[in-house]
């Protein structure tokens, strides 16, 4: 059954992470075109294709591994994967925020090094390395979301495909020089959305650990609103997909979710401190 909430969740993940990868590829291809090296574009696509295939294999492997385990090992592995997905995505949000201003120059320099010293195949390695980071992160995040979705894994996959398709269009527009969207605003708001999705994955990991008795503190039910807003259907199901809502949360999952959201949102929305200029080297005496 198609579940709109998990389609939206998968779409946001695929769109945000896909745009990062698409922009990297667009920057490299545009620089090759500008420097008269479009003959090497095929090597770039080879690296991109290899990264996509490997990322897909990682995601499918993770999802299949969880489904083949028995309790309590399934819950332990699922909790560890959800924690890893939360940590990786949180780190990447802040890494992209710091590096956004310099990523273009760094990629141009890497292309120059590959062309002058590494040979044409070094461009394949460059594209593969640039995309695989985003690809594995996306696979990990989507596998965690699909696992927490129970019966909504297909909806997550559908949403992710839509998001990746839109990301490819944005990347093409960037390559062609079109002002498709304000990327600064795009990354800010999709980053905020990913924080809430990551918080849901984190609370789900804590819930799995509570279920097997690994966490005893705060394992009592905080409240029960299943009669008003159940998380199995309707609006509650949509909120479950987006922010990890449950109508019967434990105290510990509720507290962890709130602490993560408040802390990470505060740090993410803080103004980025400008880089301090390096002190000038002392000039030798005349």
Describe the protein's topology.
Blueprint: H1 4-34, H2 41-67, H3 73-99, H4 103-118, H5 121-148, H6 153-175, H7 183-211, H8 234-243, H9 251-269
Helix pairs in contact: 1-4, 1-5, 1-6, 1-7, 1-8, 2-5, 3-5, 3-7, 4-5, 5-6, 5-7, 7-8, 7-9
Compact overview of the structure:
The chain has 9 helices and no strands. With 286 residues, the protein is mainly α.
Task: Give structural notes.
This protein has 286 residues and is an all-alpha fold. The chain has one domain (4-269). Helices cover 73% and strands 0% of the residues. The chain contains 9 helices and no strands. It has helices at residues 4-34, 41-67, 73-99, 103-118, 121-148, 153-175, 183-211, 234-243, 251-269. Helix 1 (4-34) crosses helix 7 (183-211), helix 5 (121-148) runs antiparallel to helix 6 (153-175) and helix 7 (183-211) crosses helix 8. The longest helix is centred in the N-terminal third of the chain and has 31 residues, at 4-34. The radius of gyration is 22 Å and the shape is elongated.
* Residue-averaged pLDDT: 81
* β-strand number: 0
Shape: elongated
Helical fraction equals over 70%
Q: Biggest sheet: strands, sense, closure?
A: none
Total helices: the number is 9
Which segments are poorly predicted (pLDDT under 50) over 5 or more consecutive residues? 277-286
Tell me the strand percentage band.
under 5%
Helix/strand-derived category reads: mainly alpha
Q: What is the gyration radius calculated from CA atoms? A: 22 Å
Integer tally of domains: 1
State the end-to-end distance: 80 Å
Keywords for this structure?
single chain; 286 residues; mainly alpha; 9 helices; 73% helix
């Amino acid at each position: 059954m198609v579940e709109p909430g998990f389609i939206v969740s998968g779409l946001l993940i695929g769109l945000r992470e896909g745009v990062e990868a698409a922009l990297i590829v667009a920057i490299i291809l545009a620089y090759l075109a500008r420097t008269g090296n479009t003959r090497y574009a095929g090597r770039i696509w080879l690296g991109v294709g290899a990264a996509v295939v490997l990322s897909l294999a990682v995601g499918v492997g993770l999802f299949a591994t969880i489904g083949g385990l028995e309790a309590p090992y399934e819950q332990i592995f699922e909790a560890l994967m959800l924690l890893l997905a939360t940590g990786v995505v949180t780190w990447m949000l802040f890494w992209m925020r710091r590096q956004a201003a310099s990523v273009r120059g760094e990629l141009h320099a890497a292309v120059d090094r590959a062309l002058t010293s590494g040979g044409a195949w070094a461009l394949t390695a460059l594209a593969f390395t640039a995309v695989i980071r985003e690809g594995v992160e996306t696979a990990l995040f989507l596998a965690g979301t699909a696992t927490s979705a129970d019966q909504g894994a297909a909806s997550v996959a559908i949403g992710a495909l839509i998001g990746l398709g839109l990301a490819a269009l944005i990347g093409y527009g960037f390559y062609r020089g079109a002002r498709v969207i304000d990327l600064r605003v795009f990354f800010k708001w999709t980053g905020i959305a990913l924080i809430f999705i990551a918080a849901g994955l984190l609370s789900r990991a804590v819930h799995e650990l509570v279920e097997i008795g690994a966490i005893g503190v705060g394992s009592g039910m905080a409240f029960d609103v299943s009669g008003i807003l159940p998380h199995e259907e309707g609006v509650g199901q949509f909120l479950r997909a987006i922010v990890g809502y449950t109508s019967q949360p434990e105290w510990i999952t509720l507290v962890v979710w709130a602490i993560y959201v408040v802390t990470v949102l505060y740090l993410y929305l803080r103004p980025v401190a400008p880089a301090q200029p390096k002190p000038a080297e002392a000039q030798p005496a005349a």
